[in-house]
Amino acid sequence: QVQLVESGGGLVQAGSSLRLSCAVSVRTFSNYAVGWFRQAPGKEREFVATISRSATNTAYADSVKGRFTISRDNAKNTVYLQMNSLKPVDTAVYYCAATTPSRLGITMIPNDYSYWGQGTQVTVSS
How far is CA 102 from the centre of its chain? Predict the structure, then answer.
């Protein structure tokens, strides 16, 4: 069983920074690519960032490129999302998700992720 728990969300002003964490409970964390997604009220869930199993490959949505950075610490079974220069449009529930060991590489498609956390709220005020 793979469990993911997000933390680090909160209410911040525009221009501020937050770092989200995703703790993954699984025996071989390094076998799973992990992604971050977000969902704003009334909108569909959208891709934010993803990182490969060994952290050699990453990908970002155009809307966050240059502002957000995804990283992982396989020794701590944790993936991070450093969010800088936050904007009100970044307001959403942020979810982390993990693929399965059989999936190689990285993917931006939500359906390619088999395990999801409960989400953490990020609210950016103007």
Answer: 20
Contacts 24+ apart (CB under 8 A), 63-69: 63/89, 64/90
DSSP type of residue 98:
E
Nearest by Cα to 72 from 119, 19, 12: 19
Q: C-alpha 36: how far from its chain's center?
A: 2
Rounded to an integer, what distance in angstroms lies between the CA atom of residue 41 and that of residue 45? 10
CA dist 93 and 46 (Å) reads: 11
What does 19-41 look like in DSSP terms, one character per residue? EEEEEEE-TTGGG--EEEEEE-T
Radius of gyration of the chain (CA): 13
Tens-digit pLDDT string for the chain (126 aa): 899 999 999 999 999 999 999 999 999 999 999 999 999 999 999 999 999 999 999 999 999 999 999 999 999 999 999 999 999 999 999 999 999 988 889 999 999 999 999 999 999 999
